[in-house]
Amino acid sequence: MEKLKSAIPETLKRDISDSTPNSLHSTCSSLLDFYQNLPLFHQLVRDLTDPEMGLCGKNKEAALEAKANGNACFSNGDFSNALRFYSQALHIAPTDVDDGEKNLVATLYLNRASSLHKLGFSLESSRDCSRALKISPAYAKAWFRRAKANASLGNHDDAINDLKISLETETSLSGKRQIQRELNIILDHSGKRSSMPEESYDNTQDEPLQVELQCAFTPTKGRGMTSYTDVPQASLIHKEDPYAAIILKHCRETHCHFCFNGLPVDAVSCISCSIPFYCSTKCQMLAEGCGSFEHKKQPEFLRNITDDLEDYVRNVTSLSITSSELGYDAEHKHECQGVLWPAVLPSDVVLAGRVLVKHIQQQSYDGAHPKIHAILDLCQNYEKLSNESKLELHVYAVILLCCLQKFYASKLPFNSVIISEIIMLLSQIRVNSMAIVRMKYSDANQTLDSQGTMSVEQVRVAQAVYSGGSLFNHSCQPNVHTFFLSRTLFIQTTEYVTAGSQLELSYGPQVGQLNCFERRQLLEDRYSFICQCRSCAQVNLSDLVINAYRCVKPTCSGVVLDSSITKYENEKIRLLKVPNSLQGYMHDEDISTVASHLCEEIDDSSRLEAGHCLSCGSYRDIQATQKTISEAESYIGRLQDTIAGSEVSNNTVRDAIKSIDILKTFLHPFNKKVAEAEDNIAQALCLAGDFQAAMDHCQASIEVTFEFKHQFQSKTCFLFGFSHPFCGFGMPGLKPTPIPDLQ
Ligand SMILES: C[S@@+](CC[C@H](N)C(=O)[O-])C[C@H]1O[C@@H](n2cnc3c(N)ncnc32)[C@H](O)[C@@H]1O
């Protein structure tokens, strides 16, 4: 792909850098002309779209080899490795080839079921048997193995039925004898029947939504969501399935490619290619939109068994999914031909393909009016993108269109109009797609380790486009939060929200984690907008203390700032000459007069001065202070290194504890560095086994947050002193904001 980008002539690259949504037709047309005559381009498209070139195609020989390895491990009692080899074989085995008299995939499922049963995974073993039976309903050994798994699970009635059918389908006399023996044993111990559904895809949390939302235009952030009524804390306000979603590359082998939950040991693979894994056949079919394993012919043995048993067989071997459920969500179907492009192109480009295909399927889109960017009706940020990103979008749009041509040439003609529309779609996806996250525990059983700790991290597993969810703007002090069950997005309030207020979630950075400059930088780099949330657009007290120093006077609790912070915050004050709350209404003459009047009231004393205490005005030499702090921080840095290597020495901890005293002497008590240093020491002491001391430092870290909140709630002016112009200000832009969370 890099070669394709660098091959573009400089003049065209410049045009692309200068392009706007309105001039895309011209740049796309030039790019298309250039690529049409470039052999490298044609070669690359061939590699990406030719199943013969695809490394992700199925491979019978490789599958048989993995199966043989699995058999060898199984015979040696090495069931874990047998399981691994059978799973590997299943991933690459073509569905339509036989191995001896049986279908290869069915045999592999049965072999894996045997390994799973030996390893104690009875439920998984039974599911694999059912999968083998869906392919080969008269597979006596699969019924027999299923009976064993069901017996282990205490499902004796099912086990008896399985054995009866196994008896019916078994052809050898010795086999029949063995089955009969097993049947007699289970009949002797038969207990209660219990049902056991296979599939795990379930995103139902049918809690009704409690509020009615409206999408309203905001002066600084475009459209946004608000509520008609007051909304209590913890109300579920939004629930939505994605328009399209895709697994991220690093989770391809650990999470289901449809519901994005962690994969079980008996994961199933895509029927046609060797890219996706699914947690169940239901997810597999929902993603691929087909039931290729469905057997067409009525199995002979059904004629000889009772009606009840026949129902039982149909229940086990039929597909547990209706054709209406398959619907339009068959998002992997068009990628599923053993071709390379879905595996190679970036996730958001493949996601754009899914959006396009879904639209084509749903709307019987005729290609005559290719308003592709209107599919999602979402905002885009093309003009704000870097030159490099614009170039990338051009190249990927052309490639994606080539890849989709195989199926949709008549719907998506290969021309510059469609390419420019795809570029718009890609830039919409960049701004609006959400990361679906899952919690990852260091220990799968979610228990505390020997040190009494458990590490939990949030992992981004998939990227999805939610049409409604995309209308929620960002705030660094959000009042709603998102969570996901399977693919479904849920949004819930985190505080009481009054009617008409904006409902805003966090796209990442939050107050208390980073200062205003860092948050805005991050959002601009990632999403190309300058944050105008209530915390960023105004002078925010938590942003002042998060990196602040102590006043040199021991009796004063005021704040001292360095020049980078004062410069940034003073710029906000300057911009506030037109108060934020009035900015959208400046056309109104009366309000404009009021605004000018208010602005005149901000004089030079409203400016923050670097190095001077905001409360008493005492001076601190920031440069000298910074030098001492850097030395102290180097000890904390050393401690962090030893924590990473899990080898904590007493000396390192002692030095870090000494240095924290220095930090506390010079830094404001609510400075983020103090809380982080306390956290690090607590972690090190945990590793060293000194849990009481660890608790004390944890407590100290928590107190920074707690005290912070307490101080802000009780006397917001302690930072400045009562005489400072920031205190008791009536101006909306300078009101002290609510309490941030230090994390
Ligand atoms: C997912 S969309 C949200 C809906 C969007 N406002 C619209 O009109 O469709 C994200 C875009 O909204 C705008 N936005 C969201 N939060 C913002 C904020 N805090 N400050 C400024 N712009 C914001 C930015 O243009 C951003 O690229």
Automatic annotation (TrEMBL):
Q: Does the keyword Cell wall biogenesis/degradation apply?
A: no
PROSITE patterns membership: SET, TPR
Q: Which domain of life is it from?
A: Eukaryota
The alphabetical list of record keywords is: TPR repeat
Pfam families annotated for this entry?
A: SET
Ranges annotated as biased composition (Basic and acidic residues): 1-17
InterPro entries in the record: SET_dom, SET_dom_sf, TPR-like_helical_dom_sf, TPR_rpt
What are the TPR repeat spans here?
63-96
Q: Where is this region: Disordered?
A: 1-23
Per UniProt, residues of the SET domain are 211-508
Signal peptide location in the record? none
Q: What is this protein called?
A: SET and MYND domain-containing protein 4-like
Please name the source species: Dorcoceras hygrometricum
Q: Lineage of the source organism?
A: Eukaryota, Viridiplantae, Streptophyta, Embryophyta, Tracheophyta
